[in-house]
Amino acid sequence: MRTRLISVRFGPLLSGLLLALATTALVAAPTASAAEGVAAVGEALEKGPVYVAPGAEAQLSTAQADALAKKIEDAGKPVFVAVLPATAEFPADKVLGAVRAETGITGLYAVRLGDGFDAGADKAVMPRNAVRNLTEAVKTGAPVNANTQLNNFVDQALTQVKGGAPASWGTTGADQGAPVGGLIALGAVAVVGGGGAYVLVRRNRKKKEETRREAIARLAVVVDEDITAFGEELERLDFHPGEPGADDAMRGDYEQGLDSYEKAKQIMASVQQPDEVKGVTQALEDGRFALATLDARRQGRPLPERRSPCFFDPRHGPSSEDATWAPAGGAARTVPVCTADAVRLRDGLDPAVRTVDTERGPRPYYDAGPAYGPWAGGYFGGGILPGLLVGTMLGSMMSSPAYAADFGGGTGSGFEGGDVSGADFDPSDFGGGDFGGGGFDGGGGFDGGGGF
Fold first, then answer.
1. How many other C-beta atoms can be found within 10 angstroms of the C-beta atom of residue 116?
2. Local structure of residue 178 (DSSP, 8 states)
3. Cβ neighbours for 208, distance < 8 A, ≥ 6 positions apart
4. What is the pTM (predicted TM-score) of this model?
5. What confidence score (pLDDT) does residue 138 get?
6. Distance in angstroms (rounded) separating the CA atoms of residues 332 and 372
7. pLDDT digits (tens, 9 = 90+) for 51-105
8. How far apart are CA 148 and CA 264, in angstroms?
9. In sequence order, what are the residues at sequence separation of 6 or more whose Cβ sits closer than 8 angstroms to the Cβ of residue 247?
10. Residues in a beta bridge with 50
11. Which single residue of 112, 164, 182, 249 could bond 418 by disulfide (Cβ 3.0 to 4.6 Å)?
C-alpha cells in the first residue's frame, strides 16, 4: 500500500487529533482486510471505483488500476469496476447482483470475471438497453485483455451515466486488491461521524447542482437558436388571417404555429431540469408541421404527411423522404431527411448537419455527448430516435425517456447515481446482468466474448 507523507505545522490540539485519527485508522485496518469474497469487493468499492481482487492481479496491474480509478474519479460519476478471479468464491450467476447489494450504492457496475465480462446498473443511473449495448460493444469474438476492455467500457459509460460519485470515495485508487484512501480523510470521517458525512453529502449535492446548471446553460444556447429560427419562419411566411383566399383551416394552422412559438418560449423560460427541454422542441416540431400544412394550403398542393423532422437538422422542417446514411465509422441506417439533404446525399455530398459547441470544437449534435439527449428526444420522440442514433455518442441511451439527460426521467425511487440506497435496493431495478433475482434481463453473461 502506498503512503503519502504531508509536512505541515500543527497546533497541539490538531496534532493530537491527527494522532488519534491515525491510530483509529490503523486499528481498524485489520478488521477491513478480514473481509473476504463479495463482502471484500463491496467494502472496497465503497471507498474507491476500482477493485482488483487477490488472484486477479495479473489481469490489471496496479498502475493500470490507478489510472482507471483516476479517470472515473475525475469524471465524478458512479461507475464501479471489479476485477475478480474465476473461482467458486465468485459464482458467475450471482456475483454482479451480489456486489451491488453489498456495496449498497446506486451506480453502474462492471465486473471482469476471469476472461469474462458483464455489467449492470440501477435504472436511475442507466437504462437496461444502454447497459446491454455498452456491454456488447466491449465484447469481441476472442478474449481481450482486461485493461483494454475496461477502459473502452468506462470511456463510453462516463459520457452516459447519470448521477455523481458517492461521497464515501474521497481520494482513492486501486492497489493489489485494496483501494488506497487518504488516511486523514478517512480518519476524519470516523471521528466527526455524521457531521463529516454531512459535509461530504453537501459537497456531492453542490457538484450535482453545478452540473445541472451547466447542462441547462448548454442546452439553452441550442434551444434559443431553434426558437429564433422558428420565429423567423413565421415572419417569412407573411400570412395574414384576413388576406384574400384565407379560410378557417389556414387560420387554424397559423394559430397553431403561433401557439407553438409562445409555448416553446414559455417552457424554456421556466426550465429547471435538462429533461424539461423536451417540451420546448416538441412544441417547435408541432409548430413547424402546422406551418408546412399552411404553406401547402396556400399553394394549393396536397397536404404534407406528418413525418419526423429532418434528422440532420430539425430546423429544416418535416422530412420529405427516407435516405440511407452512415456516420463516420458507423453502420448505415435509414434516416428521415428534408428534400435539400436528400439531394445532397444523392449527389455524394455531405448533408447540412446541425453542429453544437463542445470542448473539441463544433461537432454534430449526435456526436456531442449526452447533454443534447433531451433536445433530440423532443424532436424525434421515443419511437424513432434509438435506431437513428446507433453508433453515435447518443445512441446507447435508447430506452430512457430523457435521452442521456443527467437529470429528470428518474424511476421515482428517490436515489440518484452515487446515493446510498441501503435496504431499499431492489434487484428488479438493477438491469444489465442476466443473473437471477427476477430482475436482470440484459447483459451477455461472463462468456469472455461475443455475448448474446
1. 19
2. B
3. 163, 164, 416
4. 0.49
5. 83
6. 22
7. 999 999 999 999 999 999 999 998 889 999 999 999 988 988 888 988 998 888 8
8. 45
9. 297
10. 81
11. 164
